[in-house]
Amino acid sequence: INVTLSEQLAERVKEIAQRTKRSMSAVAAELIEDSIEEREDAYLSEIAEHRRQTCTGTTSHEEFWEEALRD
């Protein structure tokens, strides 16, 4: 992957790299991974909240399998 950063953003990544004694590529990769994880967490939170608002009850493990095996 090839990414072009603004000068300001590249400088910020460079500062982190120097402070942590890591390469700019390693820092950029970690920052991208963190960002993706945060977006995934936000998306899953939205799904969980939607389910919380729309689900009317719960089913126990035993109830689920009783119903599933009846069919």
Explain this structure to me?
- There is one protein chain.
- The protein is built from 3 helices and no strands.
- The chain is mainly α and 71 residues long.
- The radius of gyration is 22 Å and the shape is elongated.
Percent strand: under 5%
Average pLDDT rating: 94
- Provide the helix percentage: over 70%
Treating each run of at least 4 consecutive H or I residues as one helix, how many helices? Answer: 3
Could you provide a short overview of the structure?
With 71 residues, this protein is an all-alpha fold. It has helices at 7-20, 24-54, 61-70.
Keywords:
3 helices; 71 residues; mainly alpha
What is the element layout, followed by pairings?
Blueprint: H1 7-20, H2 24-54, H3 61-70
Helix pairs in contact: 1-2
